[in-house]
Amino acid sequence: MGSLSPVQLLAELENLVAAPPPDLLAETDLRAKLYQASKRAALALEQPTEVAVRLLLAHPVESTIVNIALRLELFSKLADAEYPPLSLASLVESTGADVELLKRILSVVAAFGAVKVGAGSYTHSPSYKTLADPAFGNANPMDPKNTAVQRAFGMADAYLIGILLQKRAAGQAFGRLMSTWGEVNALLQHLYPVENLVEGFDAEISKVMFVDVGSGYGQKAIALKQEFPELLGRIAVQDPAMSIEQAPTVPGIESQAHDFFTEQPINHAKVYYIRQCLHNWPDDACIQFLRHLGDALKPGYSKLLIYKQVMPERGASEWSPYRM
């Protein structure tokens, strides 16, 4: 019999995952060999960015989220359910956890395969059935001044940015990590037609064409300028001083230290761009941030572009490629 095509192989693997044959699971040696082969296949297909995600996000996040799920007794509640699967509402009632926090936790543990997701319901994954631990009350983090960061640095009643501005070494390391993280991924010109951005640019309204808010050292704006050197108007990148201090000098790119919870200093630019910022803050802080930008927009002229990743209800991966 000829070898399977990649499409056929994918179909066979999906069938195997959906319903592993009982005799396969009983064959210890064969199961172990298949497990190791699948890991090698995953490594062979892994892209550099996915390696970074696995090492920097997936592994530490998985252990953290599993620990939280243990304290909530999620695994034991799912495994011991008399009438599985369980709905989100029933798990909220039995755990006493905040509904938004629990939904987020379940989404992540489902992405790691620790629970199985149905239509608005959840059931246990056999591999995690034995995990259990006493739980205590939990709530979705809502106060940006009361998080693990404040405890780690021993600085109460301070925002993350304020702490990092005082802890210069940590702040600069954070800025480098965030900038490197997005160095070559999700470039604006690959997500949005740049010609639509510059159409109708009017230097009489504002000499600034593009403002990258929360830009790191400006790597996205720099890539945009390099690919489209003919872009009219000025390009500005804005971030706290700890990142802006590390920004390279690039002709046509202006770096500006800015706290985006204060008034936006550039008014009536053609485009304001926010990338991967809003998820760091609760709703009221995001509203404050966006209101300042709204005040800077010129109706009928300025555009506000927001780049975020969206986790689907089902079938999420550790780094879901669903973007808006």
UniProtKB/TrEMBL annotation:
<protein>
    <submittedName>
        <fullName>S-adenosyl-L-methionine-dependent methyltransferase</fullName>
    </submittedName>
</protein>
<dbReference type="InterPro" id="IPR001077">
    <property type="entry name" value="COMT_C"/>
</dbReference>
<dbReference type="GO" id="GO:0008171">
    <property type="term" value="F:O-methyltransferase activity"/>
</dbReference>
<keyword id="KW-0489">Methyltransferase</keyword>
<dbReference type="InterPro" id="IPR016461">
    <property type="entry name" value="COMT-like"/>
</dbReference>
<dbReference type="GO" id="GO:0032259">
    <property type="term" value="P:methylation"/>
</dbReference>
<keyword id="KW-0949">S-adenosyl-L-methionine</keyword>
<dbReference type="InterPro" id="IPR036388">
    <property type="entry name" value="WH-like_DNA-bd_sf"/>
</dbReference>
<dbReference type="Pfam" id="PF00891">
    <property type="entry name" value="Methyltransf_2"/>
</dbReference>
<dbReference type="InterPro" id="IPR029063">
    <property type="entry name" value="SAM-dependent_MTases_sf"/>
</dbReference>
<dbReference type="InterPro" id="IPR036390">
    <property type="entry name" value="WH_DNA-bd_sf"/>
</dbReference>
<keyword id="KW-0808">Transferase</keyword>
<feature type="domain" description="O-methyltransferase C-terminal">
    <location>
        <begin position="195"/>
        <end position="316"/>
    </location>
</feature>
